[in-house]
Task: inverse folding
């Protein structure tokens, strides 16, 4: 986040829903036909437009963002499985318990005591993240993940707006074009998956 404009970071994170579809093939044995592969390819092209290899540096910031997208997709796939057996509160509590020792060890080497205002900001970030994770886990118990993923696409709008308001970052034309392509492909995948699921569980009318 400190190395890449906020709009670019948000756009690249929209790759995660595409990765979720690929992960579902191996983890949940979902069948992916040619139209969905075409949508995945279209979204991948959108990601390349955002990155624009050869026109902007493929630096550490971009690499870390791509890793974030991969890990985010893995986390959501695991959440989909956990939502079937654990409630939202349990998942959030376990997340906090595991994150404390994992993040504490590397923080020792760069630790500085936060001021009171910094502590308040950090606490607020923690509350936002915990609330977001709880809401996500709760949503997974109420709706299919394919119906929920398109909502994440609004991040592109919010990221651009907040980046402009707080950091004077003006999104480039290519960020919008690539982001729109990613949104289009993932929306198609989500819609297609919803239709297929409806067809599978549709009960034929009984003739009278």
Result:
């Amino acid at each position: 986040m400190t190395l890449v404009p906020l709009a670019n970071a948000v756009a690249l994170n929209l790759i995660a829903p595409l990765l979720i579809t690929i992960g579902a093939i191996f983890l949940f044995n979902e069948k992916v036909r040619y139209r969905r592969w075409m949508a995945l390819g279209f979204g991948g092209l959108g990601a390349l437009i955002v990155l624009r290899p050869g026109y902007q540096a493929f630096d550490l910031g971009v690499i870390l963002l791509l890793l974030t997208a991969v890990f985010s997709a893995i986390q959501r796939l695991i959440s989909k499985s956990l939502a079937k057996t654990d409630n939202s509160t349990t998942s959030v509590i376990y997340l906090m318990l595991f994150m404390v020792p994992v993040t504490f060890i590397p923080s020792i080497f760069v630790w500085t005591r936060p001021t009171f205002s910094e502590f308040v900001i950090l606490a607020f970030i923690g509350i936002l993240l915990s609330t977001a994770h709880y809401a996500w886990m709760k949503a997974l118990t109420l709706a299919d993940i394919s119906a929920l993923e398109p909502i994440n696409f609004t991040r592109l709008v919010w990221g651009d707006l907040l980046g402009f308001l707080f950091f004077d970052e003006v999104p480039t034309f290519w960020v919008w074009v690539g982001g729109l392509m990613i949104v289009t492909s993932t929306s198609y995948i989500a819609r297609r998956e919803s239709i297929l699921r409806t067809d599978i569980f549709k009960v034929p009318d009984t003739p009278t």
About this structure: The chain has a mean pLDDT of 76.
